[in-house]
# Entry
Amino acid sequence: MVVVDALGKTASYETSRTYPVAAKEVRRAVEAAVRGLPRWELGRSSEAEVTAVRRTRLGFRDDVSVGLSEGKTGAHTNTRAALRSVSRKGVYDFGQNKRNLRELLDGVDRELRGLPHS
# Structure
């Protein structure tokens, strides 16, 4: 979902995904994915949220956050990851925030499957 703030000054993109594992496993996968991606820098990490900064090729910075909430479905533990990427400058991001989250989600999926980085 594309979002523009109340003043119409900042572009962002939000999405979510549910993983059939505990929140700590998703958090570790997010941290490892960020460390393995070019032009990404890990920010804060807690039980409930991981933040990062992604630099574009032109040097613009986008703030990325992943909120984690764990729940149980029967005997199984699931974790919902709510992802958001926000441009620090500009009203239009030309799809960069969506690409940021797609890149991060691909990395998280690789980490959770134990696949090598491409």
